[in-house]
Amino acid sequence: MKLIATLLFVLAGFYAEAQSKTTQVLDEKYDGLSLFFYRNTLRMLNQKDDPAFDELIKDIEKMRFMMINKADSKFTDSDYKKLLEGYKGEAYEEMMSGRADGRSFTVYLRESNGNVKGTVILAKDNESIMVLDILGKIAMNKVPEFFSAIDNSTDIGTKIKDFMSDGDKKKEKEIQGKPNNDN
Q1: Model's pTM, two decimal places?
Q2: 3-state secondary structure the chain
Q3: Backbone φ and ψ of 145, nearest 5°
């Protein structure tokens, strides 16, 4: 019986580290693109067999990628500030912020005993919010490169572009006065 209780405790701890509660709430509140990746799935993104990409993902166990179209979801600057506060409330510390490729990036880390256990990377531009909720870590100076690799992946890039173009199609229908029956 103790073995089962211990196993359940360990599994619950692993699940709790897998994704932040703030990311879960974000996914429940806003419609958007939400994809899950494990290390093997991330390796499949490396379609050019780039050793630098393999090095980039070597410390990632699991990752969730979310993308929310700000206009379609009515996601405001106030919502973004609440999102940042949510991560801070979960003991994530802001490690870096900056701009690259027309996006603002903010990187949060959660550490335990000096080891990085979780990484959350937020990227926003005029149209969307992107969240990478990672069990593990990536090198801070490689964050823009990582987003670029995701954008340029044939499979994921296509899903992202389809997601964004669906929002554009909805806007076109609304402008033309046609009802949107896609939902």
Answers
A1: 0.72
A2: CHHHHHHHHHHHHHHHHHCCHHHHHHHHHCCCEEEEEEHHHHHHHCCCCCHHHHHHHCCEEEEEEEEEEHHHHCCCHHHHHHHHHHHHHCCCEEEEEEEECCEEEEEEEEEECCEEEEEEEEEECCCEEEEEEEEECCCHHHHHHHHHHHHHCHHHHHHHHHHHHHHHHHHHHHHHCCCCCCC
A3: -65, -40
Kindly report which listed range (82-96, 111-125, 154-168) carries the lowest average pLDDT score: 154-168
pLDDT tens digits, residue range 33-75?
888 888 888 887 777 788 888 888 888 999 998 999 999 999 9
Cα separation of 134 and 62, whole Å? Answer: 6
**In this structure, is the dihedral angle defined by the CA atoms of residues 17, 46, 27 and 67, taken in order, positive or negative?**
positive
Q: Given phi > 0 = left and psi -120 to 50 = alpha, else beta, which region is 55?
A: alpha
12 vs 149: CA distance, rounded Å: 32
Residue 167 in contact with residue 69, Cβ under 8 Å? yes
Q: Which residue has the tokens 């073995």?
A: 3
Residue with tokens 């949060």: 108
Please check the confidence at residue 158 and state whether its pLDDT lies above 80: no
